[in-house]
Specification:
24% strand; 2 domains
């Protein structure tokens, strides 16, 4: 069966000489909920940027549902919904405009574009804010808009880069329920997060990256069954200080 994501020997070195990703290989099966963990600067965002065409790999291959994400970027990108860490939107545009414009970018016809936009605005509780400019929204509402935008073309793979950073507990749990629902319906999800509770709750497979390399990969059960659970595994894999690791395992 064709994997949702197959990355083989990915390398990315920037013009400055910075090596962001080094010989990274990774497979995400269809329907998985994959947690992609690592410290700031470990290579998570660079890997995602290479997957979505924002950055060009130095070498290696990336297939999205069997489609070469570099050679056939447009076709691969159609299958991906990206909720980035940064707010890369026109801050003077309204909520409805932001979501609908993305639907147009992916070629949805007018009726379908409007229907998907309206459905997602209602699903994320954005109806009272639909005509507001993005700059007028709270941090939590902005996160909802970015996620709605990522889902407007009903992608097969949803990539979430810190989707709940800065949102309140109630909204975070509401988003968790919705993401679990999407995953049960068959959507493949890749999640990066610094909230280990979030990864434990949602993900079935976990990969940890440090220094541009995958340092630990496997089913969530392997991480939780060790002394100290996911936190201790994460700290050990990323080279944390011994006393921090001992504290997690205590």
């Amino acid at each position: 069966m064709t994997a949702a994501v197959r990355i083989s020997h990915l390398n990315k070195t920037y013009r400055t000489g910075t090596v962001a990703v080094s010989d990274l290989s990774l497979t995400i099966e269809k329907g998985d909920f994959f947690g992609f963990l690592g410290p700031n600067g470990a290579g998570k965002s660079t890997t995602i940027h290479c997957m979505t065409g924002i950055a060009k790999p130095t070498s290696g291959t990336i297939d999205i549902f069997g489609i070469d994400a570099v050679k056939d970027y447009r076709e691969a990108r159609r299958r991906v919904g990206l909720s980035p860490q940064e707010y890369n939107v026109d801050t003077f545009a309204t909520v409805t405009q932001i979501v609908e414009w993305m639907a147009g970018y992916f070629g949805l016809h007018k009726a379908e574009r409007k229907a998907r936009t309206e459905m997602l605005i209602d699903r994320f509780g954005l109806r009272p804010h639909a005509k507001k400019q993005f700059r007028e929204l709270s941090g939590g509402l902005k996160r909802r808009v970015i996620l709605a935008r990522a889902l407007v073309h009903d992608p097969e793979l949803l990539i979430l880069d810190e989707p709940t950073a800065g949102v309140d507990v109630e909204l975070r749990r509401d988003l968790w329920r919705y993401l679990q629902e999407l995953n049960r319906e068959g959507k493949t999800i890749l999640l990066t997060s610094h909230y280990l509770e979030e990864v434990e709750r949602l993900c079935r497979t976990i990969g940890i990256i440090a220094g541009g390399k995958i340092v630990k990969l496997g089913p969530k059960a392997d991480f939780l069954s060790t002394v100290g659970g996911l936190e201790a595994c994460y700290l050990t894999a990323t080279g944390a200080e011994p006393d921090h690791i001992e504290g997690a395992a205590a």
